[in-house]
Every structure is written in C-alpha cells, then in structure tokens.
Amino acid sequence: MPVFVLTLLLLLLPASAAAQVYKCKGKSGETAYSEHPCDANAQPMKLRDEPSGDTAAPAIASGAEVIDAPLPHSDPSAARDDESARAAERSCIATATASVYGPSNDRVGNLQQQLSALNEQLAATADPQRTQALRARMGTLRQAITREHAAAHTQMNTARRRCIEQHRPAS
Fold it and tell me: What whole-number distance in Å separates Cα of residue 66 and Cα of residue 61?
C-alpha cells in the first residue's frame, strides 16, 4: 500500500510543479513579467489549470495573443494522454515565459534606471539646450522600452505556438 501511495504522489508531482508568473507594474507604469515577485504587493497571475466550460487547453493571458484550442477526447486513456500533453504544454509555456520575459524585464529595468538618472539631471539643470537634449534622450529611452515590450510579446507568442505544436496531438 505505501508503494502505491508513493507512486501516485510521484505521478502527481510534475503536474503540481508549474512555475508561478508574476505581473507587476513598474514606476513608469510599464508591465513586467517575472517568475519572482517584483515587490511585496506582487500577486501571481492566475493560470488556468482546468478548461473553462469547454475542452480547451490552458493558456497564459498576458495582454498578448492567446492561443487556446480544444483537445479531442475519445476514451479514458486518451483523456490521460491529453492531460499529460496539457501539463507538458503548461510547463513549456512557463519555461518560455521565464526565458523571454526575465531578460526583457532586466533590459527594461536598465533602461528605466537610465531614464530615472536623466530625469534627475533634467530637474537639476536650467540650461535650455541641456534640457532639450535630456528630453530627446528620454524620448529615445521610452521608445526603446516600448520596442522591448513589443519584441518580448512577439517572442512569447512564437514560443507559445511552438509549445502548442510540440505538445498537442494533431487533429
């Protein structure tokens, strides 16, 4: 009996080992994603573990494109295979989320630090030419942050599609 319980627990372990994804707001109002809490108020994103009403597989909603298509069910063994595929897909997406948004958030954080330093310089200067140059540089940094967010969302959508192709059975 203890061997059966241990085996059952080991089978359930991979399904419960999904990574948490935190969505936070930065000082400038930008959205950041991380597998670690951004601050004391950070709340993990709610990732669907169960299909919502239909037989759809879970997807991460992050303000980007969400791909969520039904998985076919025909018999109990197929349902187990589908659940295993869903768990593998969720794990793949969680890994991709950390590998895409983690470095992107680091780059955005660096740009925000530069923006903050320029803002302090702007507050301390009275020279109109210097003010104009600082404002221009700050605009460039804001554009770089916007491009970084867009690139991360595009990479995540590509990674999400790849995870789905790898882990969902062909229709």
Answer: 6
CA 21 to chain centre: 6
Q: What secondary structure does DSSP assign to 21-75, as a single string?
A: -EEEE-TTS-EEEESS-SSTT--B----SS-SSSSBPP---SSS-----BPP--S
pLDDT value at residue 106:
94
23 backbone dihedrals φ, ψ, rounded to 5°: -115, 120
CA distance 119 to 131: 10
Residue 33, phi then psi, degrees to nearest 5: -120, 140
pTM of the model: 0.53
d(CA 135, CA 140): 9
CA distance 117 to 111: 10
Residue 41 has what pLDDT?
63
Cβ neighbourhood burial of 67 (10 Å; 0-12, 13-18, 19+): middle
Tens of pLDDT, residues 20-56: 676 777 767 777 766 666 766 666 776 655 444 444 4
- The SS3 of residue 1 is coil
